[in-house]
Structures are given as C-alpha cells and as structure tokens.
C-alpha cells in the first residue's frame, strides 16, 4: 500500500472505531470523552499523526489503558520492555482510585492554567511536565507498596526521559501543574498540597546538612515561580506565592508573597489561590 493510502486507511479506521465505541459506558468519564474528542479532531486535521494517535489514545477504551500504553512506551528500556512496564502502570492505575482522580484533575489543571494548552490533547500528548507527574504517581504507588528498587529505577528513567526528578517517596496532591518541567527536582520527604503550580527549574530540596525529614512542605494553592529554590524542612503556607528566582530558607506565612535571595515577605497575592491563577507578577512593597 502506498504511504498516502496508508494514511487514508488509518483515518478511516478511526472513523469506524469512533462509531463503534460512541455509546460505551467509559465515555461517561467526561475527561476521557473530551480527550478522545480532542485527539480525534487532531487526527482528522493531521493525517501523518493518525496512526500514532490511534495507537496512543483512540484504540483504548479507558484513560487508564491509554496512559499506561503511552507512558510505558516512553519509559521502556533494554531492561524493562514496554509490555512489562505497561502492566505495572495499568496495575497501579486500576488499583488506585486516588491516582485515577489525580490524573484527571492534573489534566484539567493544565488546560485551565496554561494558555498554551488549547485542548486536552496537547498536554496529554506533548507536555513532559504532565507526563512526568503521572509517571511519578506510578512510582509512588510502587514505593508505597514496598517495591522500592523498581520505584527508584522508574524515578531514574523519568529523570532521563523528561528531565524531571521526583523521588517516589515524595507526597504530591492533585490538580498539579508542572509547567515546562525541565530541571524540576522534588526531594524524598517533600510534601506538595492540592492545586499547586510550579514552573521549570523549581527545587524542593534539602539544605545538604540534614537527614531524615528534610524537605519542604508546600500548602494548597501555592504558586512557585521559575527557578525558585525552597530548601529545608520548612512550611510554605496555603495560598502563598514564591517569586521566580527566589531562594526560600524560612517558613512562608499563608497568603504571602516572598521574593529575593534569601526570600522575604514583600506583599500578598491578589487571589486566595495563586496556584490556580498563575499570575507571576510580583508587586514589591519595598526594595530588596
């Protein structure tokens, strides 16, 4: 078959499959239904991607099946095949309602907060911050299940593939946006609440001289700007904003804006949950 005919055949199969699956119960999952629709529209507009989109999303009956297949393909290596990793991912996702809910809330968060995300399809298929976060969730499930060697191996593969390094023991909430993702580091005892947004090169790290519980505890609705470093076992209060490039060494009161090296309180965010608003502009009450 000629290449152009192959593309037409694939697009045709997508039309047929969509018709067959239209009334399946899984489509009552609103996030999955919208994702499939967005991907279907993408496949119609770009026939060269039709086969890829069919295999990654459209042939699957559930979001769990799709994302297991998709991420396993990205993280597979000579030592762990796509098939074996897909089984691990699928086991985690089907065993944990918490992970299933988190994936959907994370995807919604990207669409709501990132102006570059015009549909569910774009972050799902292309945003490595979202993909790394969902891969971490499986590694965390493995860690909590006592499978530490595999969890740490998966952490290494996630770091190599996405340039995002999250220890599988870290605890991360739902509705999280990791924008761009490159060089984000989250340490072993870090805790991140719900509805948090962070940009590239953020570090939730230790001070280098402590052991045990040594990483930040980030509250709900926090916005962490690009390049910010939060170091030590300190509390970042709910609804706070960390300005880009800041180095935070002390606790941050709830609903405060901090900036500088070392960071100091310079004001208050305009909203109760700056992590949802993504307004990174900081109005200083005084010069640093």
Radius of gyration: 20 Å
CATH class bucket of the domain at 170-288: Mainly Beta
Averaged pLDDT: 90
Cα separation of the termini:
67 Å
Helix % is 40-55%
CATH architecture type of the domain at 170-288: 3 Solenoid
How is this structure best described in words?
By secondary structure, the protein is of the alpha/beta class. It has helices at 3-21, 30-45, 50-58, 63-75, 82-95, 97-113, 121-126, 128-144, 148-162, 274-277; strands spanning 164-166, 171-172, 177-178, 184-186, 191-192, 197-198, 203-205, 217-218, 223-224, 229-231, 235-236, 241-242, 247-248, 257-260, 263-267. The strands form three sheets. Strands 3-6-9-12-14-15 form a six-stranded mixed beta sheet. Helix 1 packs parallel to helix 3 (50-58) and helix 5 (82-95) crosses helix 8. Residues 1-27 have low confidence and may be disordered.
Write the layout of secondary structure elements.
Elements: H1 3-21, H2 30-45, H3 50-58, H4 63-75, H5 82-95, H6 97-113, H7 121-126, H8 128-144, H9 148-162, E1 164-166, E2 171-172, E3 177-178, E4 184-186, E5 191-192, E6 197-198, E7 203-205, E8 217-218, E9 223-224, E10 229-231, E11 235-236, E12 241-242, E13 247-248, E14 257-260, E15 263-267, H10 274-277
Parallel strand pairs: 1-4, 2-5, 3-6, 4-7, 5-8, 6-9, 7-10, 8-11, 9-12, 10-13, 12-14
Antiparallel strand pairs: 14-15
Helix pairs in contact: 1-3, 2-3, 3-4, 4-5, 5-8, 6-8, 8-9
TL;DR?
The chain contains ten helices and 15 strands. With about 290 residues, the protein is an alpha/beta fold.
List keywords for this structure.
288 residues; alpha/beta; UDP N-Acetylglucosamine Acyltransferase, domain 1; six-stranded mixed beta sheet; 15 strands; globular; disordered N terminus
